[in-house]
Each structure stands twice: as C-alpha cells, then as structure tokens.
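Narrative progress, year one. The postdoctoral researcher (J.K.) led the effort to move from monomer predictions toward full complexes, under supervision of the PI. The following entry was the first complex the group processed end to end, covering 638 residues in total.
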Amino acid sequence: MSEHSWTVDHRLSDDESNVHYDWSHERSPVLTVESGDVVRFDCRDASNGQLGTDATVETLRSLRFDGHPLTGPVAIEGAAPGEVLEVELLEFEHRGYGFTYFYEGDAGKGLLPEEFDEPGLHIWELDDDVARFVDGIEVPVNPFPGCIGVAPRANGTHSTTPPRRVGGNVDIKHLTAGSTVYLPIEVEGGLFSIGDCHAAQGDGEVCVTGIEAPMSVTARLTRRPDISVEEPQFETTGPFTASGVDEPMYATAGIDSDLMTASEKAIEHMIDHLHEERGLSRGEAYLLCSVAVDLKINEVVDAPNWVVSAYLPESIFSA
Amino acid sequence: MSEHSWTVDHRLSDDESNVHYDWSHERSPVLTVESGDVVRFDCRDASNGQLGTDATVETLRSLRFDGHPLTGPVAIEGAAPGEVLEVELLEFEHRGYGFTYFYEGDAGKGLLPEEFDEPGLHIWELDDDVARFVDGIEVPVNPFPGCIGVAPRANGTHSTTPPRRVGGNVDIKHLTAGSTVYLPIEVEGGLFSIGDCHAAQGDGEVCVTGIEAPMSVTARLTRRPDISVEEPQFETTGPFTASGVDEPMYATAGIDSDLMTASEKAIEHMIDHLHEERGLSRGEAYLLCSVAVDLKINEVVDAPNWVVSAYLPESIFSA
C-alpha cells in the first residue's frame, strides 16, 4: 500500500443492509457524511456474487439479474438540489479475479447478440497491472466504477441499468483512480451510491460487460454549491491508450447514416479481424472487443453518412 | 527535409486538369501507376482556394461549395474489384495556414448550427508543430486527408460529401503520416483520389470543418489481391492525445437514447465549459471543439440510454 494524502473517515461494507438494487430517493441513507469526508466502499460485482472463479457457461444459464448491487446511499450533510457532488476517486482494490460474458440471440443484450448462438464467458485472473485472456493476450488493469451516481428526483424506484443525468450506469472507463466526477444533485443530501466496478473496459462496452469484478473503492465526497452541471462532467488522465503513450492500433471503420449501425459495423469488422488475423474464436473476439477495443466517433457532420471506428491496441498481444 | 525510405515516382499537381469535384468511375485516370509506386499529390483546400489568409466572415457569405476538390483519379495497374488498395501515408506538407468555419442556423450544417445566429471563422497560422488559436491556445498540428478513397461501382456521379464503403470523406483524424489505409476496390484500376486535408481535427469534426488547409501528400499505392475488406480499415499510431501521452482532460458526458443527441449534448456542455471556464465566446468554443475535442462512445449497451463524452485536452492551454 502506498502512502496516501488522505485518511479514510468512513467504511461501508457490502453487507446486504448497505446494498440496494434500484435507485430511489425514498431510500434512507446508510451513512451521512460531512462534505469532504473520505469513504471506503466495498462493492459487490454486477452478478451479485453469482459468478465466481469456477463459473462456466452453464452458470450463466442460471444467472439471475435483479439490478446492479450498489453500495449506499450516502447522504452528504447540507447537499441540496441544484448543487454538484464532487467525487474524487482515490483508490480501487480488486480481489484478483473478474469476468466478462455475453448472452446470445434473443437472450442477449449488447451490440451484436444476434450474431451468436451460444453465450460467451471468460474468467480473468487479475494482478495489479494486467488481466490475462488467452494465447498471450494481456489487457491492462485500470479499475473504475461502472455505476456512480446520486438519486434521481423522480418518485418511485428506477432501474439501475440505464444511466441518467444524475449518473448511474455510465460505464465511463476513464473514471480511474485520480479522476474527479461532478454529478448534478437532485435531492436533499444527494444520496450517492457506487458499484458495478470494472477492472478494464473498452469505450462502448460492446458485449454488455467489462471485466466485472468485486472491489473496494475509496472516494472523497464534497458538496459544491458554487458550481452547476446539467449532466456528469469529469477530469481524468486516462488511460487513453493501453500503454499510456501513442502506440500502434488496428482500426476498422463503420460507415452508416445511423451511429448505432455504424458502431455495429465497426465491431463486426473488428471481430472478423480478430478471428482471421489473431486466431480468436468469434466469441472470444467479441469479449475482447468489450474490454480492450475503443469506439471513437470520427465524424458526425458529413450527411447523410457518419463514421465510427473501433480501435484495437496491438500492445495487448505482446505478452 | 528528413531522409526518406522512399522515392517519389510520380507527381500530380493541383492544376484543374488533375482535380475533380465528385466521384465517378467513368472519369478517366489522370495517372496510371504500378503497384507499389509512390505518388506526391498536391491537394487544394476544401474551399478550393476561396478562403485565404485574409478571409473574413464576409468572405464566408459568398463562399460557393461545388464539392471537395480531389486530386486524381489514379489508376493502379491490374487492380480489380474485390481486391484492396493499400495506401501508405508517407508525408504531408502544408502551406503555413489553414481555416476553420461554421455557418449558422438554417445555413449551417454540423452538429449545432441552430445554436448560432452568425457564422464563425478562424484563420490559423501553422508551423510544423502547432496551430495558433486565441489567448495562448495552441493545437498540435497532425495533418491527414479528410477525403481518401477509390471510385464507387455505382454508375453516375456521386457527391464528395458523404463517406461510403470505398472511403471518401471519412474525416478520420488518425490517418496521419505513418498510417496505412486499406480500401475496398470496386472498379478496374481502383481510381484513387485524395484531398480535403486537415492540419488538425477532433474526433467528430463537430462544427463541420477541421483546420482546412492546402497540402501536398505523399503516398505509396499498393494493390493487395490477397486480402479483402468490407469498409476502410487502417493502422495508425495516433495521435490519441494532444501530447502523445496520457494527460489531463476535462470531459462532458451526454446521455440519451439516441447517439446523435447524446453527441449534441456532450458538445453543448463542452461549449458551456469553454465559455464559462476558459473565457471563449461560444463561437470560438464551437470552432475549438471541432479541431481539438474528441467524441468517444462510452457505452452503447445500457438500454435505453447511451453515453457519449467530449474530451478536451488541457495541454492546449499551456502555451
């Protein structure tokens, strides 16, 4: 453990009493903190512990999803609607494993479920630096929370799946340690929750999962009555490439009048590339796209056709 | 001029006889080369020379767009439909200036024309490394061709504006010197053309122009009967950040059930940020977004809402 410039003021375990599976501003906070306090959150993985290191495709068949298990909510004293919650992400600690999976056909979500007639699963061994795939492929470990948000103002309960202006399941892979997120507060106290941590993910998270992993997250929560944001904003230093410096990438363009279709085409071409040039099965390729390939919008202005490309860092093959 | 590992086999000037303003496979090649030859193309800027260093917003008012002026077409001996044209981009040479502009309201294209009631224009002074904006803001110069493609098989003439599977106006900012592009050939000889060079651009090119600039481009054209691609693919070493290494970025998320609307929201928030925190006018901010801010797709799988974020490299303010 390195020396820190912070001390943990509060710890929240991932006991069932600290975990919730939907968003509701009517839920009582499990902790109330002063602005500026540092909280260490233990977070369950997205499967709520159903997928362990011995999981198989058969385990996937019986997986039940009742919402992302989120740790919280935490109230920040004095936080009021219209203000901003500043969340400094200080440290992530994983448990040495994670998993990536997709479902096929009608059972599937994600970008291309119809291209597969069976599900896919990879259990990853994680160390501090890399996650191991197959055939000498290693993906850098750069943990972040898939879900990070405050409670929406709207009454009732709300699914954890779609992200909203208050955050939630934003799946922004750049929210790594050292990043700061600004969230618009809609209710008294803010009611902050976090979870669904990923050890790595590509921009797009195309197969519907990153490297899903149980983790602990340490974050400083600060009330910012002096600023306002309409949707989440953030400061980050990346990673913007796998190695942290400009490096060789292989990229496949998708060109279409619809950005989603362009994204699908780009990933289809990348799956072809990984299958034909790198010897992966198409299922393995789809999993790897979801954790290591980035979708960038090249242009959205040359009507009627837009370009989205998928970028594969060649450095992940150097292991 | 540094030492090269190539020699130029052919030169194509940007005389009117070597320039065309639409795509048509019925156009006779202005040059026929052997596979592997290196060609130096002089390329006019996207305004076809109408915008010089003394241009003003008034000049924009009288600008006439008849298609991107493209240099070519070049036939590659023996190239046949179904094969791939490999284009190694070897060198770019600009003329020391470039321009970025947008039109307002109904006259405008791009992502957010309705947010402006007057057009915007910036004339850039370029050196080998940077392009100068305002108030100590410098954008790195990383030239690439906005338009790069081969002739489509479909009969008739085709606008240069939309990109197609054979390439064209793809506006992929990573097609810098050292990159290699693979284009699907649809007609005998391939009929390759190039132009619309940009000295810099953000992913998205949101205001509809990058740093538009006349340039010369040196490229090696190689017939690849041994491979096939459905849409353009490419190898690149970036730039993936402004400085070439992971660096601080400020990012604004746009969350919506439509990827285009999410992109619009992300850029609207970034314009707000540049206006409020960096003191730019909203028009200046929109221009800067188009040349220096990158749109990334964070997730396309958390139905019904997707996340697109706009990333601003803070290093451009260090000048």
